[in-house]
Amino acid sequence: MKTIFLVIPCYNEEEVLPETSRRLREKLLSLQESGAISKDSRAVFVDDGSKDKTWKLITALHIKYPDMFDGVKLSRNEGHQNALFAGLMQVKDHCDAAISLDADLQDDINAIDEMVQQFEAGFDIVYGVRSQRETDTAFKRTTARSFYKIMELMGVEVVYDHADYRLMSRRALEGLSEFGEVNLFLRGIVPMIGYPSTKVYYERAARFAGESKYPLKKMLAFAAEGITSLSVKPIRMITGLGVLIFAVSIVMLIYFLIRHLTGHTVAGWTSIVFSVWAIGGLQLLAIGIIGEYIGKIYLETKRRPKYLIDTWLHEDGARTE
Ligand code: UDP
Ligand code: MG
Q1: How far apart are CA 75 and CA 17, in angstroms?
Q2: Burial profile 291-308: b = 16 or more Cβ within 10 angstroms, e = fewer
Q3: pLDDT tens per residue across span 52-91
Q4: pLDDT band with cut points at 50, 70 and 90 for residue 317
Q5: Nearest CA to ligand 1 atom 24
Q6: 212 lines ligand 1 (CB under 6 A)
Q7: From the centroid of its chain, how far is CA 53?
Q8: 200: which DSSP letter?
């Protein structure tokens, strides 16, 4: 029987935690009773520097059900990806596999049964994939879909319609810990681990309480992070564009020379002004994108920690720094 830990990042989730913990407890109990998972299996809430009562609720849950709920408190808000990573690294030596899921339970927890079965069948990574997303707003759906499309175009390997709902074996978690990057985009890194993987399909529900902690601004930042932290294609595209423009300018040069030699020289005000603007714009764009990568290099060379643990509630409730 395998010990499975559920890792749940939480940012200002006081509205959903009571219901989420009730549903998770039910799920864990039923899985334990049917013998699918061991009695040591549990759910670990990672408080990502919440400003509301989230940590209080987690502490209360841990005190009430010490063998079922653990808590990890980060020193500050580090964002979903870092919070998830922190949770996974914190539990990896205590379980056989960890399943990551969102606090709002938009991802159907009934898929856990099948994830565990696939894990028992020998898969190290089991991706939860949304079979439909009617409950998402049309806006969320379109932006999410275009996001996967752009990632694909940029040469980043991602599993289509898979968010961060997945099971990872201990060995896969060890693998993940070897990735030293500070700019963390788990969806792009996990497929690089390479151990046997499979997919499990489920239907995505609507958030039952509270509102999305991923406003458009965070979503765009997340997409940019995904592309620039995993792909060098934008730089290649700029190089390609540069080559193309250079080729065109050679052709133009020949044309201008012929015009000049045949005495047809006209003051080409329009073309000159146009090219000044066009080239200027392109250069700025190019510098901007290259700057993006230099910024990344700058951050990576600092080797800053991705997160710091403030408190760890585990087993007997002893506080570990
Ligand atoms: N989250 C987090 N830190 C943040 C933002 C979000 O830990 O800075 C967590 C949040 O509590 C939730 C998960 O990330 O468990 C996904 O967020 P949400 O459900 O709001 O995103 P959506 O489903 O709208 O994409
Ligand atoms: Mg959600």
Answers
A1: 20
A2: eeeeebeeeeeeeeebbe
A3: 999 999 999 999 999 999 999 999 999 999 999 999 999 9
A4: very low
A5: 212
A6: yes
A7: 25
A8: E
